[in-house]
Amino acid sequence: MGADCHSIQLIDGDGVFNVSGLENFVKAMNLAECGLSYAVVSIMGPQSSGKSTLLNHLFRTNFREMDAFKGRQVFQSQTTKGIWLAKCADIEPSTLVMDLEGSDGRERGEDDTAFEKQSALFALAVSDIVLINMWCHDIGREQAANKPLLKTVFQVMMRLFSPRKTTLLFVIRDKTKTPLENLERVLREDIQKIWDSVSKPQAHKETPLSDFFNVDVVGLSSFEEKEELFKEQVASLRQRFNHSINPGGLAGDRRGVVPASGFSFSAQQMWKVIKENKDLDLPAHKVMVATVRCEEIANEKLAHVTSDEEWQELEEAVQHDVVPGFGKKLSSILDKCLSGYDMEAFYFDEGVRTSKRQQLESKLLQLVNPAYQSMLGHLRAKTLDAFKEAFDKALERGEGFASAARDCTQAFMSKFEKGCEDASIQQAKWDPSKVRDKLRRDIDAHVSSVRAEKLSELSAQYEGRLNKALAEPVEALLDAAGDDTWPAIRKLLQKETRAAVSGLSSALSAYELDQETVDKMLLKLENYAKSVVESKAKEEAGRVLIRMKDRFSTLFSRDADSMPRVWTGKEDIRSITKTARSASMKLLSVMAAVRLDDESDNIEKTISRALGDNTNANSGVTDRSIQSFDPLASSSWDEVPIERTLITPVQCKSLWRQFKAETEYTVTQAIAAQATFSNCSLLTPEANKRNNNWLPPPWAIAAMLVLGFNEFMTLLRNPLYLAVIFVAFLVGKALWVQLDISGEFRNGALPGLLSLSTKFLPTVMNILKKLADEGQQPAAPERRRGPELDSKSFRNGVYSNSTSDASSNISSPESGVEYSSPSTE
Question: Which residues lie toward the Cytoplasmic compartment (predicted)?
Answer without folding.
Answer: 1-695, 741-825
